[in-house]
């Protein structure tokens, strides 16, 4: 199993620093982008949402070792949850975030008994099947979700009643950056806590953990719930900052995409996954405006190659570089 | 009443298409433990190949064996170059590789043929309708049912009653012992993988007439194929046949009787079956 997770070269030992030295660089780059690219804040906000979504899925795949083909369900539910709430007149953005997190957490809670049990293949199928089910449901409930047209006719009130969402997207970017920072810190805390270590133990050896008295099913269920809730926050943020919620937010392509993002970023490595998501968002935006077909072709080829070449992703590179630096 | 029977015939024909496309997936998953999300892409390759050679003037009935052989060879080539290194890798790595392959093939189809729907020219005797026991049935549906039934019988015979089948079952049950008595497991796996790809290609070629064909084909029907395998149980040919026919008829029935329910029933069924029997109806314990 350990071949599955190349990022865990160091076993269960904690890193020397309380956080990776790359972390300040990530945040410096994000803050700098606010001043350097004031005309591209909408893209930067979208990328922040992708980073949050990737971190939420990394908790599941990278730490708990659960591979899902339907994680976008939670992003979509969060988006619809906050958009529908806003259409009903509750336009406060923080309330929307809470609603997005709650509905996704609730659905994750209902699903966790079937996801937690079973082999990798049953998990893939169940997550895929449930995702198709929810996609179909959202498509059918036109009155609530707008069907294939999506939802665009909702308002978002000023943040904390003070900062209105402006046309250039400054408020949206800073709002998304703050949420990202909170999610990043929370996940750092969770994954280095005893609970996070127990998750890694389950991932590395799911037979031995019950033998030392670790409640495996409950740990996995909690991580699924938490991961769903964070994806819901990302979805709510996406709906509020783009003023749109649509079916493709919970579609299969997004679910498959996030598996790739997390794997290319380096499963189980929070900084690596964040950088991977940002890079993915940038490259996708640049290439898909040039030619979406070549983008898809390139993506497929990179994915196939990644299985053979870049095991460990960006996070693996950071770790290798970090060890090299310490040795010198 | 007669329209209900016509719907049922439609459902069985659709089920046979699903069976043809899914049985290879079931075999590679059950026997080699390889999660092949590119299986729908093999069907797509077969479908495009059929469209091209039929448009070039080859008769439809000759195009089918050609597709079978070419897609089978393509499957063996991919198995030999890449997939054989992935049998012992994690589910995640298998998923990543095969989904990458599906993406790349879909994008190639888009680059070569464009995003539009493709049509295939079927011979006149397949486009007509036949009166059968007072029913008016499209002859293409009957053809599909016959093809599916013939394939199912041939496969069951191959796996249960030939030396090839016995070797495969031996390799699955105990690979080391099978190798010890001189069975060339590697070659066996490559052949089986090729057979699965060839059947998927055949299924794809046959489905153009009924389901249409565009670059999204590979991913659009992947979910249905996976459901057939999940419900039927990985590695079981009878299970795949039962599941495919069941899914096909239930889908057709609900689209006819209760269109609002749509795909809902099918996905609900999947989750229900996996809850009650996690290994599928006829699955071997994985």
Oligomeric state of the chains in view? heterodimer
Number of helical regions of chain B: 13
Query: If you compute it from the alpha carbons, what radius of gyration of chain A comes out, rounded to the nearest whole angstrom?
Result: 19 Å
Amino- and carboxy-terminal Cα gap of chain A: 31 Å
Q: Which structural class should the secondary elements of chain A be placed in? A: mainly alpha
Kindly provide the name of the CATH class of chain B: Mainly Alpha
In the CATH hierarchy, what is the architecture of chain B at level 2? Orthogonal Bundle
Q: Trace the largest sheet of chain B across and list its strands.
A: 1-2
How many structural domains in the coordinates of chain A? 1
Helix content percent band of chain B: over 70%
Low-confidence stretches of chain A: 1-18
Pair of chains with the largest interface and how many residues each contributes: A-B, 44 and 43 residues
The total of beta strands of chain A comes to: 0
Bin the strand percentage of chain A. under 5%
Main sheet of chain A, how many strands, which sense, barrel? none
Name the helix and strand elements of chain B from N-terminus to C-terminus, one letter apiece: HHHHHEEHHHHHHHH
Instruction: State the shape of chain B.
Output: globular
Give the tally of structural domains of chain B. 1
């Amino acid at each position: 199993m350990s071949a599955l997770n190349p990022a865990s070269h160091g076993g269960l030992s904690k890193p020397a620093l309380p956080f990776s030295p790359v972390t300040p660089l990530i945040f410096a780059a994000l803050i700098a982008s606010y001043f350097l690219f004031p005309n591209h804040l909408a893209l930067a906000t979208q990328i922040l949402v992708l980073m949050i979504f990737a971190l939420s899925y990394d908790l599941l795949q990278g730490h708990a070792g659960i591979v899902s083909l339907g994680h976008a369900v939670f992003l979509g539910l969060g988006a619809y949850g906050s958009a529908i709430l806003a259409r009903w007149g509750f336009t406060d953005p923080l309330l929307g975030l809470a609603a997005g997190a709650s509905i996704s957490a609730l659905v994750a809670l209902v699903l966790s008994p079937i996801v937690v049990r079973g082999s990798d293949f049953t998990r893939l199928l169940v997550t895929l099947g449930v995702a198709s089910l929810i996609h179909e449901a959202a498509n059918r409930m036109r009155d609530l979700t707008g069907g294939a047209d999506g939802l665009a006719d909702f308002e978002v009130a000023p943040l904390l009643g003070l900062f209105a969402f402006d046309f250039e997207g400054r408020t949206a970017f800073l709002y998304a950056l703050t949420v990202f920072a909170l999610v990043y810190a929370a996940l750092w805390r969770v994954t280095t806590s005893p609970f996070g270590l127990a998750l890694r133990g389950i991932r590395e050896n799911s037979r031995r953990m019950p033998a030392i008295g670790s409640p495996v099913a409950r740990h996995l269920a909690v991580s699924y719930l938490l991961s769903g809730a964070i994806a819901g926050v990302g979805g709510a943020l996406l709906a509020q900052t783009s003023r749109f919620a649509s079916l493709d937010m919970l579609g299969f392509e997004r679910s498959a995409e996030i598996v790739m993002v997390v794997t290319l970023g380096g499963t189980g490595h929070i900084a690596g996954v964040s950088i991977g998501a940002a890079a993915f968002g940038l490259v996708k935006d640049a290439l898909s405006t040039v030619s979406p077909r070549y983008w898809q072709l390139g993506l497929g080829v990179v994915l196939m190659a990644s299985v053979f070449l870049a095991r460990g992703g960006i996070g693996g590179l950071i770790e290798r570089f970090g060890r090299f630096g310490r040795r010198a | 009443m007669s329209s209900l029977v016509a719907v049922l015939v439609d459902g069985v024909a659709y089920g046979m298409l699903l069976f043809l496309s899914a049985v290879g997936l079931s075999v590679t998953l059950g026997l080699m433990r390889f999660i092949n999300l590119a299986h729908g892409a093999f069907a797509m390759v077969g479908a495009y190949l059929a469209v091209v050679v039929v448009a070039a003037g080859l008769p439809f009935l000759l195009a089918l064996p050609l597709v079978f052989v070419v897609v089978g060879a393509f499957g063996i080539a991919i198995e030999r170059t890449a997939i054989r290194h992935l049998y012992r890798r994690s589910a995640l790595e298998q998923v990543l590789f095969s989904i990458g392959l599906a993406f790349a093939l879909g994008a190639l189809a888009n680059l070569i043929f464009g995003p539009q729907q493709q049509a295939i020219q079927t011979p006149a005797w397949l486009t007509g309708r036949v009166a059968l026991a007072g029913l008016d049935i499209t002859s293409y549906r009957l053809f599909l049912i016959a093809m599916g039934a013939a394939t199912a019988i041939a496969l069951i015979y191959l796996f249960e009653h030939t030396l090839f089948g016995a070797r495969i079952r031996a390799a699955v049950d105990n690979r080391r012992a099978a190798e010890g008595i001189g069975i060339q497991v590697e070659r066996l796996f490559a052949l089986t993988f090729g057979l699965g790809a060839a059947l998927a290609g055949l299924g794809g070629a046959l489905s153009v007439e009924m389901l249409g064909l565009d670059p999204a084909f590979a991913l659009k029907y992947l979910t249905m194929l996976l459901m057939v395998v999940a419900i039927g149980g990985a590695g079981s040919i009878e299970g795949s046949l039962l599941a495919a026919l069941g899914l096909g008829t239930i889908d057709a029935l609900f689209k006819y009787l209760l269109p609002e329910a749509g795909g809902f029933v099918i996905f609900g069924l999947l989750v229900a079956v996996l809850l009650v029997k996690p290994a599928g109806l006829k699955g071997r314990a994985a």
